[in-house]
Amino acid sequence: MYIKVNGVELFYEKEGSGPPLVLVHGNGEDHFIFDQCAKVLSGSFTVYRPDSRGHGKSSRVPKLHYQDMADDMALFIKELELSQPFFYGFSDGGIIGLLVASQHPDLLSRLMVSGANLNPKGLKAPIYWFFRTLFLFKKDPAMEMMLTEPHIGKGDLERISIPVWVTAGQRDMIRESHTREIAEQIADSRLMLLSGQSHGSYVVHSTRLAQIIKEAMEEN
């Protein structure tokens, strides 16, 4: 299905029944990374899986910015009249989720982010320099965005008033200190560092994420 918001068309899948749950993928990915997870969650939730602008089947754009993506997702929720959905964001999707929760305090009921960062320095140095070198050859707008954005400050996080789960793998590409900083600056947050997991091993084409989300929902 397609919906027009903020000057672009976003493709999304919808499945299941129950409270609304929005799953947003990371940089260079699309909604297919949640195929296995959605099969499990659709038994308990109405699952929405949009492709971010410039990704998957959604509109291509010459430049990508996290703020535009956050505006897209806020309007996506409003246009579909989703009543305070649970928002899950992986990597770039987590950045989008933090921006939405900070800027639209009444829009979401809960937020979970995995492997998100507040600025490019949140990336471990070898990862940052790998992508910076790769960008010299590929000139990919998604990669450029990752190397220059986001710029989320303490004040932004302090404006988030809903429950937030901050997750990361212990072998994540995001610095552990950075992940802890995110959790510490959000008033109602829970930190989950997953033993033996990498950036996306428990998320991409995995059912483990479904169990983590269900446990978070049951907690509240």
UniProtKB/TrEMBL annotation:
Output the Gene3D superfamilies linked to this UniProt entry: alpha/beta hydrolase (3.40.50.1820)
Q: Which residues form the AB hydrolase-1 domain?
A: 19-121
- In its keyword annotation, does this UniProt entry include Oxidoreductase? no
Q: Which InterPro entries match?
A: AB_hydrolase, AB_hydrolase_1, AB_hydrolase_fold
The protein's name: Alpha/beta hydrolase
Origin species, per record, is Hominibacterium faecale
What keyword terms does UniProt attach to this protein?
Hydrolase
A molecular function (GO) term: hydrolase activity
